[in-house]
Write a structure and sequence with these properties.
220 residues; alpha/beta; seven-stranded parallel beta sheet; 7 strands; 14% strand; globular
């Protein structure tokens, strides 16, 4: 579950409502608000930590960041594929027991917005995701992050054992928000996702536990 919240107090409120939670995603907002003490607290609760900072920097800097996260017991970190193969290889070499997930194309992108960001007249999203996924896998990542729409593309090049981490998961009752490429949890699992990232539909709910349990029940 994505703890996309502004304060550690809000995070604790949600965590206390979800005693069976196994994974928590911590992004830049919450990390800056709660610091590494919050990561330690999550580990102390028996929760595996997915640190989602999407590192995109020179290889030396990213390797150092991954190594630091590994020393703190983080279970999964993200690097952005557009940092290039050398950067991704440096991250993988520094990971220790931590898993590295490579981000392909953000779920907030449409084909038009990605083309504008890359300075191209047009972009075919599935082809771009496949290209980046192949590079990430060649560099040795443990997981690939993709939107629900490209799960099949990634699975076809990743084989049966690679984790496919999928944000943009929205149950039917939830608002899409700033996500462009979304799917229900059932559809994402059926397509081959191994890990679903769900944040706002749970953390903004009046009853987070009810929504969380409903999602778990939906995917079996």
């Amino acid at each position: 579950m994505a703890l996309d919240l502004d304060s550690p107090q809000e995070a604790r409120r949600v965590l206390d409502a979800l005693p069976g939670l196994r994974w928590a995603k911590v992004g830049p907002m919450l990390l800056l608000a709660g610091g590494w003490d919050l990561v330690a607290e999550l580990k102390g609760r028996g929760i595996r930590v997915f640190l989602d900072l999407k590192w995109h920097d020179i290889p030396h800097a990213v390797a150092g960041a991954v190594a630091a996260a590994a020393r703190l017991g983080v279970d999964l970190v993200t690097v952005h594929a557009l940092g290039g193969e050398e950067m991704v290889r440096a991250a993988v070499a520094a990971r220790g027991k931590t898993r590295v997930a490579g981000v392909t194309v953000l779920t907030s992108h449409s084909a038009a917005s990605l083309a504008a960001a890359l300075g191209r007249p047009t972009v075919e999203l599935a082809g771009e995701v496949e290209r980046l996924a192949r590079m990430l896998l060649a560099a040795g990542v443990d997981a690939v992050v993709t939107s629900p729409e490209e799960i099949g593309v990634v699975r076809s090049v990743a084989g049966p054992d690679t984790w496919i981490v999928v944000p943009g998961i929205r149950p039917p009752f939830a608002e899409v928000g700033d996500q462009r490429r979304t799917a229900t949890p059932e559809a994402a699992v059926a397509a081959g996702a191994t890990h679903l990232v769900v944040g706002r539909p749970i953390v903004r709910a009046k009853d987070p536990r009810k929504v969380y349990q409903g999602l778990c029940d939906a995917i079996g």
